[in-house]
Amino acid sequence: MGVPKRAGLLPFLAVSLSVVLSSCSGAPSTTSGSVFGSTPVSFTTSDGVRLSGRVFGPQGASAGVVLTHMLPADQTSWFAEAAHLTGAGYRVLTFDLRGYCPGGDGGCSEGQKDVNAAPTDLTAALAFLRSDGPTRVALIGASVGGTASLVVASEQQDVPAVITLSAPEVLDSLAAGPDVLTNITGAKLFIAGLGDPSGAAGAAQYFYDQSPQPKRLEIVTASDHGTDLLSGSQGTHVGELIDAWLAMYMHPAEPS
Which of the ends of the chain has fewer CB neighbours closer than 10 A, N or C? Predict the structure, then answer.
């Protein structure tokens, strides 16, 4: 399987960054290139909250990926990576956690922001993408999205691969302790920046130490956090780590 090169990722990231900045300023966010060919979708959580998302990639793909955003970002922070992954044949879902409403192509999820509900939201996203066709779905999360991905993977042991970017051990009542980590049977890749002031490198080391094989720890020489790792000084390397891990454990079909 050929993995598409990441030369075009930075322009996409620049578009996504402008989206995030506009949403923070209160203006409706719109995007162009990074959502080309994607489709807006919505789905409902087990407690009745309607969430907004976008599906990227070829219909009929057998391998999928759910991307969960960090705080205070939204699904637009993943658009560039989602567009990249479609080139390797993945069906990809981005979504806004409850209470996040960037507007425009970024969508608008209902409810109030609640860190502790992130696993509930992700569980609904995972079920939606599986209903869309992929039989194997990986979870990738940034910061709190990474912690939520670990929790959901521990509850659904048919998740073949999990990747976290700067995930914390604990945030409010959301936690990924030994009881969570030892139950994750899928392949785990923990990525963090050595200089991340949140202490993400220490959390990644903890996750690695407490997890069963297969697993890998990558501490990169950067101070970036979450999805910012993909646009920082080590962005190309981080992107290649993600590509290689998915290729090893997801085996997507060749893109058409």
Answer: C
Q: Where are the domains of the chain?
A: 34-250
Look up tokens 């960090």; give the residue. 70
Residue 91 in contact with residue 57, Cβ under 8 Å?
yes
- Classify each residue of 16-36 as buried b or exposed e, where b means 16 or more C-beta atoms within 10 Å of its C-beta: bbebbebbeeeeebbbeebbe
Positions of E strands within 111-151:
136-142
Pick left, alpha or beta for residue 170 (phi over 0 → left; psi -120 to 50 → alpha; otherwise beta): beta
Provide CATH code, domain 34-250.
3.40.50.1820
User: Confidence class of residue 7 from pLDDT cuts 50, 70 and 90?
Assistant: low
Backbone phi and psi for residue 82, each to the nearest 5 degrees, phi listed first? -60, -45
State pTM to two decimals.
Answer: 0.89
Name, in order, each residue with C-beta under 8 angstroms of 36's C-beta and a sequence gap of 6 or more.
83
Cβ-contact 65, 87 below 8 angstroms? no
Asked if residue 149 lies in contact with residue 67, where contact means CB atoms within 8 angstroms, the answer is no
Helix, strand, coil shares of the chain, percent, nearest 5, are 40, 20, 40
Distance (Å, rounded) from C-alpha 193 to C-alpha 114? 26
CA distance 128 to 66: 10
186 token code pair: 């899928």
Who contacts 10 (Cβ-Cβ below 8 Å, separation ≥6)? 231, 235
The predicted pLDDT at position 3 comes to 57
Q: In the predicted model, is pLDDT for residue 68 greater than 50?
A: yes
